[in-house]
TrEMBL record:
Pathway given in the UniProt record: Cofactor biosynthesis; thiamine diphosphate biosynthesis
Annotated protein name in UniProt: Thiamine pyrimidine synthase
Stretches assigned to the GGDEF domain: 405-538
Family indicated by similarity: Belongs to the NMT1/THI5 family.
Transmembrane regions: 328-351
InterPro entries named among the record's database cross-references: GGDEF_dom (IPR000160), NMT1/THI5 (IPR027939), Nucleotide_cyclase (IPR029787), Rev_trsase/Diguanyl_cyclase (IPR043128), SsuA/THI5 (IPR015168)
Domain of life: Bacteria
SMART domains documented for this protein: GGDEF
Amino acid sequence: MSVAVQAALGLLAVLCLLAATAQARVVAQTPPLQVSVQLKWTHQFQFAGLYAALAQGYYRDAGLEVGLLPGGPQVDPVQTVVLGRAEFGIGNSSLLIDRAAGKPIQVVAPILQHSPFVILARRESGLETVRDLPGHVLGLEEHAAECLAYLHRSGVDIDRVKMVPHPGNVLAVADGRIDAISAYTTTEPYDLIQAQVSYQVFSPREVGIDFYGDTLFVNEAFAAENPEAVRAFRDATIRGWHYALAHTSEVIDLILRDYAPQLNHLKLGFEAEEIKRLMLIDIVDIGYSSPTRWHHIAQVFAEAGMMPADYPLDGFVFENDLQPDQDWLYLTLAAVLAVLLLVSLVAHRFYRFSRALRRELEARRALEAELSALARTDELTRLPNRRSFFERAEAMLREAQDAGRAFSIVAFDIDRFKAINDTWGHAAGDRALEAVADACLAYAPEDAILARIGGEEFAVALPGRGARDAAAVAERMRAAVAQLRGAWAAAPDMSLTASFGVGATTGGSSLDGLISIADAAMYVAKRAGGDRVSVMPEDAALSGA
């Protein structure tokens, strides 16, 4: 490298440092920008990322002073934002309908990759599938357009459904005045289970409707005037969500102390686990937004007559219209030009490496093929992983429903697993996971799928088995785990137990609905002390020895 090039790069680095220092000084002297966020529901773990960002000072560090406005079933966050009463809001995929109707809003970041919207119905209502809704009463909240699209795609005569405003409490279905109600899988199933109300879950995913959920959006005029503030708010919120997911118990305590003292730790813990599942944090980044998926969502709404067909989505997503700061753009271009100069000076050296590069690419292709085979297997337990389980179990459920056979899901995890890691170390925790996997696999039927779906959590898909048979399988697994004392442990007094939950169906339940029921049943088993099997919706439990 010549002396002249070295000097130019050194000068460029000094200029960048001076510019960054000057910008930081200006930010430090600028008073925080006050913004408000209209939530779509009352305070709960659903908005944990915002609470964490406030508590940890992420918004303050971004030059923002943020206020949160609680919502409810009759609150329309879009209307609040459009009227200028808040700069930001939390909505859902029906933001597309609002945009097509001329409302000046832009999507900033979807928080949930899968929407938690479902329709819950009392089992005593006589509803076997969502197509049975005509003639029944359905409580629908203000922003549940995707539930209407679900009914349309399912062939439901919507004019014959007696729709009423959402009462704000899912327990309204208990007394029979409402047969079904729009709900979130993150919260309402817990309330029904606690009230011992048997229910059925109808999910839009049954007919291929898989939308985003809890999407952060902004007033378009505000975004045009304050693009850096919108970006800073988005990044701080995503950072807050990372903190909330890594410190769940701490953030739950924060919610109970500062936002929702009427709730309890168990309910918020149930909500947190379901939200983690819907965020797909092991697969995609928080806030990831796909233009292709938005186009698909628009097509579904257009099919239902809720928005024009082929509506252009230009400008709908905020980031697509973000204009960079010109000064920093020039500095970036200067840096790129300097790099290009260096590349041109040394380009001739790369020719001799071309053959080695081709060999490296071939080796990488072989490695990618191997990784593809491993992508569906949990490395530690050698069981199918979460992705493989959902794909295979979904196919099994469809086959069972087509044949009119029963189908069950068993969800279980190791009791007090954190204490094992804290007391004996993570190596002992890994051996515990391996031991539990081996013990339960020995009692899994040949046509079942036993998988590790995350952390100390496992799931079993049982085709052709109703609640009683699935509970018997779960009980055998529970007993096998309880007998592992000393056979695997690093210390004589180490022991293992696990809590099991069973969700069963012979009707039209979706896989997500069954997993939610099984998860809820598992939480009931844990709350009762662990080392037992809990069955839902029958609400019976097989106590462990």
